[in-house]
Design a protein that fits this description.
Subcellular location: Membrane
Keywords: Membrane, Repeat, Transmembrane, Transmembrane helix, Transport
Number of strands: 0
Pfam families: Mito_carr (PF00153)
Number of helices: 8
Distance between the termini: 57 Å
Family: Belongs to the mitochondrial carrier (TC 2.A.29) family.
Radius of gyration: 21 Å
Protein name: Mitochondrial brown fat uncoupling protein 1 isoform X2
Shape: globular
Length: 268
């Protein structure tokens, strides 16, 4: 029996991680202004100054920020964002198949094994990448939230100040809502996608082809975004807040609900 040629052999783990990291980094550069706009919309109600610019929509935030602070302000925190993609997204993408194989040893892959693999994979990635998430969010958020002076002068300055003033665990703030968000995303994406594809194929409005997969993916993405948005907003505020502002994640959520109403959980 002939062995695999160099072109047929599967890529090594290192090559997979590198490829996933590069792909995720390129996507991050393209979408980073959207991410910055979402973060600013999610935290702007915590601003301590009444003269601060108020944003109303994602597009409006991007336009206003580019006009008032310059286009490069949309990329504040990009180095931390790229570090996040290298440590978070690359691991999620590259290790998913290996973890799924662990859950499906001796049996066929099913929805339960895919969800289990996604949750385990996401949990590991969150633990490793959370410090980069904390720094990224704090650099993206308006500096006026915590006084007239910027909190940090750059990415590595942010790591150092957070570690020295809040302790090493300060770099893992917001881990609980971030893990919860991963659970919601992993479960909702897979379940909704499978249910929609099954319904479309069964009722035969379209065949099991590219359009079917595209429609299923769009609906799954919409449902996932809606369901994970409340946890995402709480995660962003927990990460960005000053020490002592919230006693816990649930305290943050309750204060948002009582002071701003349910709509606060869907900002951005």
């Amino acid at each position: 029996m002939l062995g695999l040629t160099a072109s047929d052999a599967p890529p090594t783990v290192a090559v997979t991680i590198f490829s996933a990291g590069v792909a995720a980094g390129v996507a991050d550069v393209i979408t980073f202004p959207l991410d910055t706009a979402i973060v600013r919309l999610q935290v702007q109600c915590e601003c301590q100054t009444s003269s601060a610019v108020r944003y109303k929509s994602v597009l409006g935030t991007i336009t206003t920020l580019a006009k008032t602070r310059g286009p490069m302000k949309l990329y504040n925190g990009l180095p931390a964002g790229l570090q996040r993609q290298i440590s978070f997204a690359s691991l999620r993408i590259s290790l998913y198949e290996s973890i799924q194989e662990f859950f499906t040893t001796g049996k066929e892959s099913n929805l339960g094994s895919r969800v289990s693999a996604g949750l385990t994979n996401g949990g590991v990635a969150v633990f490793i990448g959370q410090p980069t998430e904390v720094v990224k969010v704090r650099l993206q958020a308006p500096s006026s939230l915590h006084g007239p002076k910027p909190r940090y002068t750059g990415t590595y300055n942010a790591y150092r100040i957070i570690a020295t003033t809040e302790g090493l665990m300060g770099l893992w703030k917001g881990s609980t809502p971030n893990l919860t968000r991963i659970v919601i995303i992993s479960y909702t994406e897979l379940v909704t996608y499978d249910l929609m594809k099954e319904a479309l194929v069964k009722n035969k409005p379209i065949s099991d082809d590219v359009p079917c997969h595209f429609v299923s993916a769009v609906i799954a993405g919409f449902c996932t975004t809606v369901l994970s948005s409340p946890v995402d907003v709480v995660k962003t505020r927990s990460v960005n807040c000053l020490p002592g502002r919230y006693t816990s994640v649930s305290d943050c959520a309750m204060l948002m609900l009582t002071k701003e109403g349910p709509s606060a959980f869907f900002k951005g």
